[in-house]
Amino acid sequence: MSTTFIIIAVIAVIVIFVISIYNNLVKLRNNRENAFADIDVQLKQRYDLVPQLVATVKGYAAHEKELLEAITAARSASMSATSIDDKIQADNMLTSALAGLKVQVEAYPDLKANQNFLQLQGELSDIENKLAAVRRYFNSATRELNNAVQTFPANLLAGMFGFHKEAMYEIEASQRAAVEKAPEIQF
Prior knowledge:
Layout: H1 2-60, H2 65-80, H3 84-105, H4 109-113, H5 115-150, H6 154-158, H7 173-180
Helix pairs in contact: 1-2, 1-5, 2-3
């Protein structure tokens, strides 16, 4: 009887251990998904703001049609993306297009003084700051999940339950050189 009790106790401990690891992995996965939902909220605000910004700039920069079309196309791609990875890639495209817009705006002093543009630019800047914060949180949640999936003993069970290493929210390789280059300051 005591041997049976010990076997049952060992099995119970193992089952509790497996359940604990599984529940922790589920919590970490849900935390990552929640973090991306926060990004989605900020992206939606950004997508809603972009057409207003483009319309305002169009009035001043009619000949910058290609840039404005690129922004509109990037926004459309961002809105139609469905998976987290597709949304990250589309968001990087839109971020790049908006950076091009900021450069073009410098050529229009009247536009820079326009109240509507200044308000939209301020809102966009605020959204960009919030996006940066939620991206950092998303990457933190992704790092925690990846650590759990890759460390012992959870790594023994993670694959069996369908957990795997997830992608971080990173800039594309094509944008890496521009980001790593020191800014040029002119007086």
